[in-house]
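lol forgot to send this yesterday, sorry. struct tokens for the thing we talked abt
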């Protein structure tokens, strides 16, 4: 692992066009216990898996945002207290003891 990390570090610090940039493609050969160039060994990471993961994360974020939009709070205002902290003040209808139009 230490050797692989040193290869990746050398690749990240090398300027564009340096042959050491190829070290970014290096990985571990667990059967032989050595570091090798994964591309020349025919080991490629499939883009399909990454694309599906990104799409799933995107859909989950959209679902959370939709749920967040569906949740409505009781009308009220946020005020700033003397010490600078936020304080929730009840709405005028709550102060008068009336129910708000949403039945809260």
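and heres what i got for the seq, position by position
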């Amino acid at each position: 692992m230490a050797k692989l990390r040193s290869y990746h570090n050398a690749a990240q610090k090398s300027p564009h066009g340096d042959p050491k940039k190829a070290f970014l493609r290096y990985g571990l050969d667990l059967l032989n216990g050595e570091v090798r160039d994964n591309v020349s060994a025919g080991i490629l990471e499939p883009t399909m898996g990454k694309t599906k993961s990104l799409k799933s994360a995107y859909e989950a974020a959209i679902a959370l945002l939709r749920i967040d939009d569906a949740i409505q709070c009781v009308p009220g205002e946020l005020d700033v207290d003397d010490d600078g902290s936020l304080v929730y003040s009840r709405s005028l209808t709550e102060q008068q003891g009336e129910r708000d139009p949403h039945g809260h």
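The chain has a mean pLDDT of 79. anyway ping me if u want another try
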